[in-house]
Structure prediction request, 167 residues.
Amino acid sequence: MTLRGRVHRYGDNVDTDVIIPGRYCNLTEAKDLAAHCLEDLDPGFVKRVQPGDLLVAGENFGCGSSREVAPITIKAAGVCAVVAKSFARIFFRNSINIGLPIFECPAAADEAETGDELEVEVETGKVRNRTKGKEYQAAPLPPEVRQIVEAGGLIEYVKRRVAAKPA
Prediction:
């Protein structure tokens, strides 16, 4: 699977409180959460983001609280993947659990700029900045993790596995 979209670039330590401010964490519908994605960091983000766009960030993306709604909000806003120098561990796991592909690729994160077109091969971890004509190697997702992401998250993955087992 290849993901391709425009870059929305952010810096280091983008925490879950700016991904989805706590005042909205009582919302239960993903589309309602998406309407507030990154609003305290970048108030115009939800108006600019298009389905299939990517977030690119620096170190420690998703730090802060362990709220699962942070990656849900990003995915519901239309973002197809996040490329960063590094991720907070709990954000990494929550992203996999909800089926949001994330890739650690410091070189790509350093060089990508807002508006660049990025392409990510999920299976190999190859990241191409089509605007700059450069290619990078991210740490590819292990096959088991990739299966969860491709299923749309852990719940869908488990449902498929249970349905596939003979009675």
In short: Strands lie at 2-9, 54-57, 81-84, 102-104, 117-121, 126-129, 134-137.
